[in-house]
Amino acid sequence: MEEVDSTNENLPETYDFLPVVSNDVDKLAEKFVTETEHEKQETKLTGGMKSRGKYRSRSLSASSTDSFSSASYTDTSSDEEGSTPREKVQNNSKGFDDFCIKNIGQAAFGRREVEIAEQEMPGIMALRKRAEKDKPLKGARIVGCTHVNAQTANEVAAALAEAGISVFAWKGETEEDFWWCIDRCVNAENWQPNMILDDGGDATHLMLRKYPTLFKMINGIVEESVTGVHRLYQLSKAGKLTIPAINVNDSVTKTKFDNLYSCRESILDALKRSTDVMFGGKQVLVCGYGEVGKGCCSALKGMGSIVYVTEIDPICALQACMDGFRVVKTNEIIRNIDILITATGNKNVVTREHMDKMKNGCIICNMGHSNTEIDVQSLRTPNLTWEKVRSQVDHVIWPDGKRIVLIAEV
Ligand SMILES: NC(=O)c1ccc[n+]([C@@H]2O[C@H](COP(=O)([O-])OP(=O)(O)OC[C@H]3O[C@@H](n4cnc5c(N)ncnc54)[C@H](O)[C@@H]3O)[C@@H](O)[C@H]2O)c1
């Protein structure tokens, strides 16, 4: 088993947060649209997908592969380099303009996407019905910051804006855009959020650092990601977490279903869309045999891949063995593998040293939430050449011609 830092204590103070599974935006859309129908409930939403330049990375999931949308709508402008929604003035059909998205004209298409997603969510539909009477969120002013499904991100953002929700998010945001969007949601005139719905802790940390007085007026936080929860624990240890926070991963329907089964599906979908790789016979190393890792291993095994696992937790390692996977040290196997997937939430799981040893054509991607799992920064050296192959797919080329395929780069 790999002897590496499992504590997450050394993670950087500001982590990038990476994303989620394909339906998350729709869940939010559902929730937020419903909320605005309630009296005196307000929501501002930020999130989005950043473009090349000063990137933020995302983990590999359906949400991170936007090359081949299966949607029927063709958004010819959505990936235009250089065009920024921040320069556009837009209104929805009712004249509402407190949003910043790619194109409000995509609202009808986005609404159809939301409706399609509803079919897959009988639980949340039932909850919405129940909440219609109880109005449990009456008075809530929620700032939401989350990842979305890349294929339909811009369209769903448009649907939200058309519904009167202040949404600041678009596919292709730069790092600076990303923080600008959060800022616009947190610090707006005539608006004071009293709840945070976070996914990675970015909204929480921005508020705490930049607007401590506003933060004091927050009643509670809901945090979706393991990484965000680690950050909350760090705050708590430092005595800075002065308000209650809910860890969504404490809900069994999140960890045991979303992390496991959604990732079981999205890993194949994402790799296929981004690389067109055939899985049969490929040697795959999955780092981490938690819920996400289990889902990835199961899917890849089902496709005929030869799957290896690294784990630092003896019980999870034993589970991997009992499920028929070989538990290895990364160095044992690194020269042979065709695909490497990180699913630990930890940092520096894959180092430059590992990547130097990989064979030509090896695909490397992160399924976890934190972009610190793969030391991508270490690949930014003058002797390596970067070549963008398609959206979210880069080739990194070594001086001898060896190239690795990096998905959803930082
Ligand atoms: N991509 C997605 O759609 C998606 C969905 C849910 C969760 N996530 C993210 O995936 C990550 C994992 O989530 P999870 O629910 O599986 O968490 P988990 O805690 O169940 O599993 C993580 C596993 O990684 C192991 N690990 C930690 N450091 C390691 C290392 N250096 N080498 C090998 N193994 C190591 C741990 O022992 C643990 O078993 C988190 O960052 C989470 O936020 C991503």
UniProtKB/TrEMBL annotation:
Low complexity bias: start-end ranges: 58-76
Residues of the region (Disordered) are 33-94
What InterPro entries does the record point to? Adenosylhomocyst_ase-like_sf (IPR042172), Adenosylhomocysteinase-like (IPR000043), Ado_hCys_hydrolase_NAD-bd (IPR015878), NAD(P)-bd_dom_sf (IPR036291), S-Ado-L-homoCys_hydrolase_CS (IPR020082)
| Keywords carried by this UniProt record | NAD, One-carbon metabolism
Q: Where is the signal peptide?
A: none
Mind telling me which CDD domains this protein's record contains?
Answer: SAHH
Residue ranges, compositional bias (Basic and acidic residues): 33-43, 83-94
Look up keyword Chloroplast and say if it applies. no
UniProt cofactor(s) = NAD(+)
Query: Which Gene3D superfamilies does the protein's record reference?
Result: Adenosylhomocysteinase-like, NAD(P)-binding Rossmann-like Domain
Specify the domain of life of the species encoding this protein. Eukaryota
Q: Domain S-adenosyl-L-homocysteine hydrolase NAD binding spans what residues?
A: 259-410
Q: Which family does it belong to?
A: Belongs to the adenosylhomocysteinase family.
* Name of this protein: Adenosylhomocysteinase 3
In its UniProt entry, the species of origin is given as Limulus polyphemus
Query: Which gene holds the coding sequence for this protein?
Result: LOC106463379
